[in-house]
Design the sequence.
C-alpha cells in the first residue's frame, strides 16, 4: 500500500547479494506488484538483451542504492502505464544497452510522477545501429531528472521526447553530462520541458540539442536556461527545427 511498501534489500548492506540472469530466457527481475522498493542490491552481468529490473505497469516502485554492472539489456525499464516511480542513488556501469528507459516509443503508454535523482551512469555502449542512451523518456511520459552524473555514452546522455498533453512538464536540472561519443549531451525532442542549471561537457555534437523529433511539432513550452556548456564539438546549444516553435534559450554559458 502507499506508505507501506514491500522492501527487498540486502541483509548486510556491506555485502549486497548479486542478482544474475536465469539460465533459460527471461529477465533478472520482473516487478508485477505495486509499492515495491528495491534497495542496495547488485545486478549483472547479463547476456545481450537480458534486462535487469523491469517494471510491469505497476505504481509506487522505488529503486535505490543499487548497482548495475555489465547489463546486456536495459538496466531499468518500464514500458507500460505507471505512476509514482522513483529511481535514485543507483550506479550503472559498463552497460551494453540504454541504461534507463521509460515509456513507449509510439506514445501508447505513459509514465508520470517519475523521479530520477542522483544516479551515476558510466559507459553505455550498444551494438550496431542501436543508440545507447543514458536516460531516455519516451513520447507522452514525463519526468523530473535531477542531480545525475552521466558519462561516456554512445548516444545522448539524457533525452526527453515530449508529450501531447501541454499540462505535463518534464524538468531536467543540475545534471552533469559528459562525453557522448556520437550525439549531444542532453537532447530535447519535444516539450513542455525546462532544462536548467546543467553542466554538459565534451560531447560529440552539442551540450544541449533542441530538435523536432519525428516532425511531431511538440517543441512548445521548452526553456533552456542557466546551463554551463563547455568543450562540446559543435556548439553549446544546437537547434534543429522548422516552422513555429515555442523555445526560450536564455542565460547559458558556452565555454567552447
Sequence:
Amino acid at each position: 500500500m502507499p506508505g507501506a511498501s514491500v522492501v527487498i534489500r540486502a541483509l548486510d548492506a556491506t555485502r549486497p547479494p548479486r542478482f544474475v540472469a536465469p539460465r533459460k530466457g527471461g529477465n533478472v527481475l520482473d516487478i508485477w506488484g505495486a509499492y515495491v522498493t528495491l534497495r542496495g542490491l547488485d545486478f549483472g552481468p547479463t547476456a545481450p538483451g537480458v534486462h535487469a529490473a523491469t517494471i510491469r505497469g505497476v505504481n509506487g516502485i522505488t529503486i535505490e542504492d543499487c548497482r548495475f554492472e555489465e547489463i546486456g539489456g536495459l538496466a531499468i525499464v518500464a514500458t507500460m502505464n505507471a505512476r509514482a516511480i522513483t529511481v535514485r542513488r543507483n550506479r550503472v556501469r559498463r552497460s551494453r544497452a540504454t541504461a534507463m528507459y521509460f515509456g513507449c516509443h509510439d506514445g501508447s503508454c505513459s509514465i508520470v510522477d517519475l523521479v530520477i535523482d542522483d544516479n551515476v551512469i558510466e559507459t553505455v555502449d550498444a551494438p550496431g545501429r542501436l543508440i545507447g542512451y543514458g536516460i531516455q523518456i519516451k513520447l507522452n511520459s514525463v519526468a523530473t531528472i535531477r542531480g545525475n552524473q552521466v558519462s561516456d555514452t554512445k548516444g545522448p546522455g539524457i533525452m526527453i521526447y515530449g508529450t501531447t498533453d501541454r499540462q505535463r512538464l518534464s524538468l531536467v536540472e543540475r545534471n552533469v553530462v559528459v562525453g557522448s561519443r556520437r550525439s549531444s549531451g542532453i537532447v530535447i525532442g519535444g516539450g513542455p520541458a525546462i532544462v536548467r542549471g546543467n553542466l554538459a561537457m565534451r560531447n560529440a555534437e552539442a551540450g544541449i540539442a533542441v530538435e523536432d523529433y519525428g516532425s511531431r511539432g511538440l517543441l512548445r513550452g521548452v526553456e533552456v536556461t542557466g546551463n554551463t556548456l563547455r568543450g562540446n564539438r559543435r556548439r553549446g546549444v544546437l537547434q534543429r527545427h522548422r516552422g513555429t516553435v515555442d523555445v526560450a534559450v536564455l542565460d547559458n554559458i558556452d565555454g567552447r
Remarks:
- Residues 19 and 54 are 13 Å apart (CA to CA).
- The chain has a mean pLDDT of 94.
- The chain is about 0% helix and 45% strand.
- The two ends are 50 Å apart (CA to CA).
